Structures are given as structure tokens and as C-alpha cells.
Amino acid sequence: MQLRNRQDFWSGVMFIALGLGFAWQASSYQMGTAARMGPGYFPFWLGIVLALLGAIVLLGSLSKKAHETHVDKFDWRIVFLVVGSVVLYGFILKLLGIYISVFVLVVVSSLASHEFSLKVAVANAIFLVVFSYLAFVKGLGLIFPLWPSFLGMN
């Protein structure tokens, strides 16, 4: 067997490692049964399924039908923008409220894309602000500050 698709190979390795890691960690919780699930049941089986999917992707990368690809140089800028936007969101949520925080999260993380478009990023941000409000505040009844705390509009 020859490695033909490096992207699929390393994706498979990552899925297998994450899946087995989650399954291993979940096994320290009470498992229960399918009829009466314990706190470790769902994450354990989710980890196993993730590892199996990773194995399928990995084996597919060794197939003669796989397209030959290469893995580009690791781009730390993208990692910094995506992870940094989530960290920034965590810091500004209480101060600026969910509306502005989600908007900032989406626009900053969108900068990581090679096809960045401000118009698309703003449209996505508006959609996710509305979705977050409807799903989490209205649907689930979670209590989040909606507007900046210094405006007193909550």
C-alpha cells in the first residue's frame, strides 16, 4: 500500500486519536446501558464512532482510487485567528453582550478564510446573532446579557 492522499491520511489519524481519547476519558464515567444511559455512555460511543470514521478515511487515503495530494505548510495565522476569536468572545461576552460578541466572533474568525469577504462575514454574523438569540435565549431560556452592560439595556 502506498500513501496517496496525505490530507485524508492525517485527517484519519487525527479522528482516530481524538475518538479514542474521548472514548478512553468517557470510560472513567459510569456507563449504564442502552436503555438506561450513564454519563459516560454517549461520549464513549461517540468517540468510538469517530475513531471508526477516522479509520475509514485513513484506509481510503491508501486506496489506488485516491487522488494524490500534499499537505500545505501549517498556517499559524489561521489557528491564531480562529482560537483567538473564541477566546476574545469569552472575554467580551459579559461586557458587550451576546449580540456584539457573536458578531465580533464571526467577523474575526472569518478573517482566517482565504476567500474572506466582508459582506459575507457580516451576513453570516447577522444570521448567527439572530440564530443565537432565538435558539439560546428564546428557545432554551438561557440568561445572557444581550447588550453591553454599560448601556443598561438588558
UniProtKB/TrEMBL annotation:
Keywords: Membrane, Transmembrane, Transmembrane helix. It holds the Pfam family TctB. The chain crosses the membrane at residues 9-27, 42-62, 74-92, 98-118, 125-147. Residues 10-145 form the DUF1468 domain. It comes from Achromobacter insolitus. InterPro entries: DUF1468. Coiled coil: none annotated. This is DUF1468 domain-containing protein.
